[in-house]
Amino acid sequence: xxxxxxxxxxxxxxxxxxxxxxxxxxxxxxxxxxxxxxxxxxxxxxxxxxxxxxxxxxxxxxxxxxxxxxxxxxxxxxxxxxxxxxxxxxxxxxxxxxxxxxxxxxxxxxxxxxxxxxxxxxxxxxxxxxxxxxxxxxxxxxxxxxxxxxxxxxxxxxxxxxxxxxxxxxxxxxxxxxxxxxxxxxxxxxxxxxxxxxxxxxxxxxxxxxxxxxxxxxxxxxxxxxxxxxxxxxxxxxxxxxxxxxxxxxxxxxxxxxxxxxxxxxxxxxxxxxxxxxxxxxxxxxxxxxxxxxxxxxxxxxxxxxxxxxxxxxxxxxxxxxxxxxxxxxxxxxxxxxxxxxxxxxxxxxxxxxxxxxxxxxxxxxxxxxxxxxxxxxxxxxxxxxxxxxxxxx
Amino acid sequence: xxxxxxxxxxxxxxxxxxxxxxxxxxxxxxxxxxxxxxxxxxxxxxxxxxxxxxxxxxxxxxxxxxxxxxxxxxxxxxxxxxxxxxxxxxxxxxxxxxxxxxxxxxxxxxxxxxxxxxxxxxxxxxxxxxxxxxxxxxxxxxxxxxxxxxxxxxxxxxxxxxxxxxxxxxxxxxxxxxxxxxxxxxxxxxxxxxxxxxxxxxxxxxxxxxxxxxxxxxxxxxxxxxxxxxxxxxxxxxxxxxxxxxxxxxxxxxxxxxxxxxxxxxx
Lengths: 394, 267
Prior knowledge:
The complex is a heterodimer. Chain A is α+β, with helices and mostly antiparallel strands. In chain A, about 60% of the residues lie in helices and about 20% in strands. A 6-stranded mixed β-barrel of chain A has the order 2-3-10-5-7-6. The longest helix of chain A has about 45 residues, at about 255-295. Chain B is of the alpha/beta class. The interface between A and B is medium-sized, with 23 and 25 residues.
């Protein structure tokens, strides 16, 4: 039998049992769609994280006390402004060094209030990280040096305290102390699970007075170029370790952050794909089941085909193609549905979804493979049927 | 009982036995049957049900294998043939007609007839052309696109006969071809087989337990308990000793649904 003929026979027999074929296909459709959607979500999340980490700025080095490791508790910082000065001397450029000391505080304006992160920072923040203002101006060096009570609000904070009114020049109180608003950040959105619009920047010197502490939580350095990141990190860690012999310090690069997060999300994506793969497997079992039913139901047809000259192989190929056609049609439908589903998820939810070619290829290939694997047993059974017995069956 | 030596036999069975197991019990369906079907022969195998006549037909047609003895189809001993070779042999030399027609449902008459040609690797156009020609020969040129469910019993059997002959086989094996038809329809189907035997020269082996049907054959083989008990030469000779138990009467369930063209002799 010619292959084209075998395809036609397989297609005709699927069409003859539309409802049954459709329901069997549904298992594969759901499986493939699930693989495509879940992998798209996993991939989308990974890309989003990468985008956000890279969006922080370029050639960044984050220096924090303690080891950056999963499972280790955050260390209490012993860094102070004099350490920052030491780091600045190593870097040789004050504008490349940013610091932060953070505390959760309630910010009020009139009757409105909001609990938010208040960061004590240097005026260098915008030159290290990517941050832009929608209104007013950022802190100046003299604000930092003289410990002025001025604040730059995140866009979410500004909106909840002032609504549509212009906050510039208005008074807010942070932990009961009055500050003047000098600037508002442009919205940034979520980054690594933190709402970066929900924060207030004040001079680090003012923050120390306000929080009653001298500590610095972390130092960020923007290296002049990529090649200097590692060397600079080593020198800074050495310097800080010599100043605080009993404390460990870590300098983390964006690549390292991306590496760790990428690994986690990669595992997550694989797990999602595996779960979806199980549903594809279940769909495959359904195909196998229906093919066995189909072979049984068409025993007489098989007997007749053999009587008129079909070889066992011809019969086997016919049923195998039927199974493959069932799963590949289901696979194609599932792919379309999966792409649609991923686009829908990306459109209506904050979860990003990115459809990748490899997930489509994989899902389709797997569905075709499922057809072959789960079609082989029924096909062999059909091919081996004894024609006399087959013709006698009811 | 021995093979006539007019020419090479289309099918030759020599001391054929067939034993199969049914629920652990050995059933001797054939106990040493020798029979030769000559080219252009027209013979009937009669006998009560269970006498082994269908088994003999299956073995002679290469659908089933003999437990012992020799089956030679078209000069080839089938003993050494493997399943694909047997399939090819069936396709090229044997045409089967069954009591239950065994047409593919949801498939047009012309495509049903063309089915054996599919396994010859012929293209669709060629298959259609040959199938159409064959349907014309059996008087169904007006039913090409009809499906089996749209045809009467007699018409369905004609389609089945056309399918059996489309490959130009040397032997047509018909197992109770009139068993599902009323007397008149059955008669016209028989007339068709006779006509084809004469015009095409295909040997016809008719398995039946209807005496009147068997009487139209040139030769009658009477079977009982897996053995040939008698051979009667010449058409019209009646067999008295093996009265069939249940000959199909007018109560046959598959009567004609529309007028059937008279059993004219196809050209």
